[in-house]
Amino acid sequence: MAKRKTKSTFIGLKVTSEQAETLAQLQKALNSPTKTAVLLRGLELLASSSLPPTPPAQPTPRAAPQIATSLELSQIEAEARHYLNALAQTRNRSEEVMKQMVQELAKVDQTVDKYHGDRNYLIQILLDIQRENRWLPRDALIWISQKLDIPLSQIYHIATFYKAFSLVPQGRHSVSVCTGTACHVRGAPRLLEKVTDTLKIRPGETSSDLRFSLSTVNCLGCCALGPVMVVDEEYHSNPAIEEMEKIFSACE
Amino acid sequence: MPRLKSATDLETRRQEILARRDPDKPCVTICSGTGCHAYGSEKVAQTFAAEINKNGLKEKVDIRRTGCHGYCERGTIVVIFPQEICYLRVKPEDVPEIIETTLTKGEVVERLLYEGEDAQRIIHEGDIPFYKHQSRIVFGPNRFIDPKSIDDYIARGGYAALAKVLSGMTPEAVLAEVKKANLRGRGGGGFPAGMKWETTRNAPGEPKYVIVNADEGDPGAYMDRSLLEGNPHSVLEGLTIGAYAIGASQGFVYVRQEYPLAVENLNVALEQARDYGLLGENILGSGFDFDVMVHRGAGAFVSGESSALMTAIEGRVGEPRPKYIRTAVSGIWGKPSNLNNVETWATVPLIIDKGADWFSSIGTKGSKGTKIFSLVGKVNNTGLVEVPMGMTLREIIYDIGGGIPQGRKFKAVQTGGPSGGVIPESLIDTPVDFDELTKVGSMMGSGGMIVMDEDNCMVDVARYFLNFLSEESCGQCVPCREGIYQMLKILNRICAGQGRSGDIELLEEIAEVVRDASLCALGATAPNPVLSTIKYFRDEYKAHVEEKRCPAGVCKELISYYIDPEKCQACLLCLRNCPVEAITGGKNLIHVIDQDKCTKCSACFEVCPTRFGAVVKLSGVPVPEPVSTGTEVKRKRGGKSE
After folding, report:
1. Is B222 in contact with A221 (Cβ distance < 8 A)?
2. How many domains does chain B have?
3. Which residues contact A214 (CB under 8 A, 6 or more apart)?
4. What is the mean predicted confidence (pLDDT) over B82-92?
5. What distance in Å separates residue A234's CA from the closest CA in chain B?
6. Domain boundary among B360, B386, B409
7. Nearest beta carbon to residue A127 from set B257, B377, B464
8. Which of B226, B296, B382 sits opposite A224 (nearest CB)?
9. Could you give the angle at which helices A94-114 and A122-133 cross, rounded to 10 degrees?
10. Which of A50, A202, B228, B604 is deepest in the core (most CB within 10 A)?
11. What pLDDT score was predicted for residue A181?
12. Is residue B140 part of a domain?
C-alpha cells in the first residue's frame, strides 16, 4: 500500500500539517470546543456561498409524468433535484442538516471500520453503502476516497462498472422484470413493455416522484414462474394489466 | 460447542446427532429454494409452524426448511418423512388438511400428490418421472438438509471426506485421486480440475489461494445458486479438501450479491464450521490451517471470468487480463490461485468418499460423473435436474422435462448460455458431454438448458444474446466491444425488416474475427449464438432478410394482427383489451383492427378465445382489406345471423 506523508488526522480525515494548523486556528477563532463544530461551520460557509441570493426556487408545476426523453436527462434531473432539496433545506435549517450530513458520513465511517479500513474491501464497502442509502451519494464517495486514500476516479470506475451501484437516488419501490433467457422465450419483452407503459418509466429510470425505480435483471432463479416481475421482493408471474395496476397502486 | 479435534471426534459427534434423532418421528420438510420462495413457501412454512402448535403436535413433529428440491414447476414442495410423502403445489390453505389427514390420521391427501399419465397418484418423491430418471448425487442431499444446520450435514456423513483426507491421505494422494476421477470443471470450460490443482500446487510463490466461483451470470441458469443456498457445507468441504491438496491456507467465495440467501447461508455455514473446528487453525487436529472469506460480486457478467474475478477480489474493477500466464500460476495479488465452480467443489467430497473408480464409472469416456442443468423455457417440468454425463438431450427434455407444453412442436434447445449455441431437433439425440456439445457448435457451459418451441424466433434469440453480451462486454478489447456491437446492429435491422442481402455472410465474417481476436472467453465465445443459429436455421434468417417474414411470428416489425371476419364472434374481448383503442366494432359487429394504430402488443391475440381463434398473426403477406365498418357477424352456432 502506498504511504502518503500525513502528519495528522481531522475527524478521521488525513490532512497535511499545514491544513491541520489552519484547522486548529479556525477552531480557536470559533472558540469552539470540538472539531465537529469546525466542520459544521465549514460546511455552512460552503453552502451559503454556493446558494443563489434569490429566494428558493418555487416548485415548478409539472405536467403529468411522461416517459422521459432520455435516460441521461432523467438521471441528471434526479440527481439535481436531490441536491436542490438538500440546498434548500440547508438554507432553512442549516444546523440540523449539517448534523445530518455528519451523521451520514459517520455511518460511512462505521462501514469503513467494519472492514478495518482495508482498501481491498472497497467493493464490499460500496455495496454496504448502496444497500443503506439505495444509492451512492457523491459526498460519501469523496469521503471514502479521502479515508482509504484511493483516487476518486478509481472509485467512480468501480461505481459505474458494476450494475449493483447507482449514482442517482433510487425510488422507494424497486420494480424488476426478469429478462433471463427462460423468461425471454416465455414473453418477457411483452411484460416489460406493459410495465414501462404502466409506470411511464424505462429500465434504469426512476419516476420523478421517487416512487418507483425500474430495472431489468438476468435470471432470478424462478424460471417456472416466467416471465416474472418482482416488486419489493414480491414475485408476480406474468401479471395482466389490471393486476399490475393493482400491485403498483398498493405501493405508496 | 467444543471444537472437533480429530476424525474420531467427528464420527462421535455424528453418532451423538443420530442418537438424538428418532428416525420414525414425522418430519415435515418444506422446500425453501428460490423458486418455491417465489411461490410463497415462506407462508406455507409459517402456517405449518402455527398449525402444528395449535394441534399440540409441537413435540411430536419436526419442521425442516430445506434447500431447493429442483422440481420448481410444482412448488411449493412439501415432503413428509419418514414415509416420504411428496405434496406438490402446496398453498397455506392446504396445511390444515395435511396436518389432519397425514400427521394425525396417517393417511395421504390424494389431491396434492403427483398425478401420472393414467391419472395414477404417486406418493413418493423418487417415483415421480421428473426425479426417476435423474442421478442426484451432488444435488440430492439438498432435500434432506436444513442449510443453516451443520448437524444435518454431518448426520448424513458430511465432512467425513475431509476427515479421511486429513487423517490419512497425503496432498499428493488427494491430487492423484481427483486426477484419476477425471473431474472436469463444471463452470463451462471443462478443464480437468486435477491438472489445474497440480499447476497451482507446483507454481512458485506463497501463499496460494483457492476460490469458489459463484458468480453465476448466465441468464436462465441457477444451479450454483441452489447448491450454495441449499447445501453450502458441501462446497466448503470440497474447497477445504482442495486447499489441502494444493497447499493453500486462504480461500475465497466470490458470490453474486443478487443471491442474498446464498450469501446468508454461506456466512452461517462458515461460522458453524469455524465453531466446530472444521475451518480455522489446526483443522481436526491435523495441523492444517485454512479459512475462507466471502466476497460479494457487485453485478458484472465478465467478472465471472477467472482473471477478472481475481482482480475484483483485490478490490479493483473486475476486468479480464490477457492470460499468457494462467491464474493458476499468477492470480490474486500475483500468487498461484486455483479457481473452480461451485458444482465442481461440491463434487470433490464425493470423489474422496466413494473413490475415483466409482466416480469415473458414471458418465462417458471423456466426461465423468453427473451434471446439474437448469431445464427451463418451453418445457413442462421446469426445474433443476442432475443427470449422468452421456444422457441424450431427448431423454432430458422428454423423459424428465415431460416435453413441450400445449402440444407445441420442439424447435431447438440452447445450452451454454451466452457462450453456447442452439441445437436443433435433428441433433436432439446428442449426449450431454463436454466434447459432443462442442462438436455440434454449442457447449456445456455452466448448465443452462433453454428449450424453445416453434413460437420462438432463432434470429431473435441470437439478437437477445448479443444484446446481453454487448451490455456486458467490458470494452477493453476492440474485437469484442465493436464486433459484438456491429453484429447486434445487423441483427437488429434484420429483425426490423431492414435486412440487406449479404447480411448473413457479413455476420459470419465478423463472428470469425470476434472469435479469434478477443482478449477473453466472453468475446471468444460471443459469436456462438449467432453462428449456431445461422448454421441450423439459415432459412429462417433468409426469410427475414429476403421475404421480410418472421416464420415464428416474433419480430414485431414483421408481423401484423388481423381479425378473420369469418371467425369473429363480436365478443368485445379484444376490443376492450386493446390498450391503444385500435379495434373498432361493437355488439354483433365484426371487429376490425386499425393497422395504423396497432402497436402489435399482442393483447388481442392473447385474449381471443381459442374456440374462436379469430385473431391471427400474419407475417410476410399483406393484411387483407378490412370489412366495412358496421358489418354484422355471422353466428357459428344456430347458423342464423342476427
Report:
1. yes
2. 5
3. A175, A176, A177, A195, A196, A199, A201, A202, A203, A204, A205, A206
4. 93
5. 7
6. B360
7. B257
8. B382
9. 140
10. B228
11. 85
12. no
CATH of residue B584's domain is 3.30.70.20
Q: Are residues B341 and B440 in the same domain?
A: no
Q: SS3 for B254? A: strand
Q: Give the model confidence (pLDDT) of A201-234 as tens digits.
A: 999 888 888 899 999 988 887 888 889 999 988 8
Same domain? For B296 and B319 the reply is yes
Q: Which of B55, B53, B60, B68 shows the shortest CA–CA distance to B27?
A: B60
Cell numbers 353466428 label which residue? B635
The reported pLDDT for the residue numbered B323 is 83
Distance in angstroms (rounded) separating the CA atoms of residues B583 and B597? 9
For residues B141-153, give the mean pLDDT: 94
Can you give the residue range of the structural domain that contains B603? 556-619
Q: In this complex, how many residue pairs, one in chain A and one in chain B, have their CB atoms less than 8 Å apart?
A: 129
Say whether pLDDT at B93 is over 70: yes
Q: Distance between CA atoms of B315 and B90, rounded to whole angstroms?
A: 44
Residue A43 reports pLDDT greater than 90: no
pLDDT digit string (tens) for B600-631?
Answer: 888 899 899 989 999 999 998 888 988 887 78
- Within-domain flag for B60: yes
CA pair distance B593, B600, nearest whole angstrom: 10
Which residue is associated with the grid cell 455424528?
B14
How high is the mean pLDDT of chain B? Answer: 92
| Fold adopted by A73-169 | Arc Repressor Mutant, subunit A (1.10.10)
Confidence of residue A37 (pLDDT cuts 50, 70, 90): low
| Cα–Cα distance for residue pair B193/B347, rounded to 1 Å | 11
Q: Summarize pLDDT for B552-561 with one digit per residue, the tens.
A: 999 999 999 9
Q: Which of B523, B546, B569 is the last residue of a domain?
A: B546
Interface test with A, best of B76, B376, B469 (most A CBs within 10 A): B376
Q: How far apart are CA A149 and CA A1, in angstroms?
A: 10
The answer on B415 and B300 residing in a single domain is no
Q: State whether the Cα torsion A115-A117-A123-A125 is positive or negative.
A: positive
Among A223, A233, A235, most B C-beta atoms within 10 A, so best to mutate, is A223
Among the ranges given (A10-24, A58-72, A237-251, B489-503), the one the predictor scored with the smallest mean pLDDT: A58-72
Q: Are residues B256 and B352 in the same domain?
A: yes
A224–B601 CB contact, under 8 Å: no
Does one domain contain both B286 and B348? yes
> ipTM more than 0.90?
no
**Candidates 2.60.120.620, 3.30.70.20, 3.40.30.10, 3.40.50.720; correct CATH number of A173-249?**
3.40.30.10
Average pLDDT over residues A34-58: 57
The yes-or-no verdict on residue B91 having pLDDT over 70 is yes
The answer to whether B299 contacts A222, with C-beta atoms less than 8 Å apart, is no
Judged by a CB distance cut-off of 8 A, whether residue B417 touches chain A is yes
Residue A231 phi, psi (nearest 5): -115, 115
Residue B434 lies in a domain: yes
pLDDT digits (tens, 9 = 90+) for B288-340: 999 999 999 988 888 889 999 999 999 889 899 888 889 999 999 999 999 99
Q: Where are the alpha helices (DSSP H) in B95-222?
A: 95-98, 129-132, 150-155, 160-168, 171-181, 193-202
What residues of B are in contact with residue A219 (Cβ under 8 Å)?
218-222
Q: Where are the alpha helices (DSSP H) in A93-151?
A: 94-114, 122-133, 138-148
Q: Which of A114, A132, A185 to mutate to test the interface with B (most CBs of B within 10 A)?
A: A185
What is the model's pLDDT at position A2? Answer: 44
Does residue B625 belong to any structural domain of this protein?
A: no
Name the residue ranges covered by the structural domains of chain A. 1-49, 73-169, 173-249
Closest by Cβ to A181, choosing from B295, B301, B414: B414
Q: Which residue has the higher pLDDT, B219 or A96?
A: B219
Same domain? B415 vs B542 = no
Contact of B142 with chain A, judged by CB distance below 8 Å, is answered with no
Quick one: average pLDDT of B402-429?
92
